Amino acid sequence: MNYSTDFPSLEGKVSAEEWQARVDLAACYRLIDQYGMTDLIYNHITSRIPGTEDHLLINLYGLLYKEITASSLVKISVEGDILAKPDTDYGINKSGYVIHGAIHKARPDVQCIIHTHTRAGIAVSAMKCGLLPLSQTSIRFIGHIGYHGYEGPAINLEEREQIVNDLGPHDALMMNNHGLLTCGATVPQAFNTMYQLELSCRSQVDAMAARTELSMPGDNILEHTAHLYQPGARRPYGVLEWPAMLRLLDAEQKNSGYPPYRH
Ligand SMILES: [Zn+2]
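# zinc ion complex -> structure
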């Protein structure tokens, strides 16, 4: 089997828009790894290629997130059919893509979808109380997050519709007994939302484990605050920190031993 991960660069061989989408998506995989949100080789982050309606990028199934590069990403149709992939025996996880495909089809406003199985995300996804407004970080999601009941790993047509309905107009979905999902109009925005949702879950697990009574802001403050933190209410999310995120990756990768994400 050819499981080499030494892929030739596609820079200059694909459109400028596609290359930029590849670089941003590869960076997003690295950042999800950097901040402790990976599950071995599992899960996916997908990005629509701007300027196309139904061409998407996804990871080769079998690579660690810290191995993913711009040129290793696979171009697929919204149905999950491979349009272009590197010369390797690694393929894509079509059943894992089904959740992403359903949302990409139903939400043309969404460029990027991130799904994680993190310890804190799974923990909160199993709580009947759901995500609580325990912190300024989590208030952003109150009234702006969907919940999807667990129906087993088989993703049939009905469940796809249910996921789309449960997500509704939101950019965040708590998948009960399973994990987290965020999406966004850009890769940086979807990453920002996942970072904040993960932080909300980590702090909720810590606070609930502290065996002391917890305080929460009143309903009038919650609604007002949640509104102020919606993307676009004050500024779009992800824009200001993204160049800093890329500088962080560039600096850390100098001695990492892994190929640079921009390759
Ligand atoms: Zn999952």
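# post-check
The beta strands are 45-48, 55-58, 74-77, 82-84, 112-116, 146-148, 172-175, 179-184.
The first strand starts at residue 45 and ends at 48.
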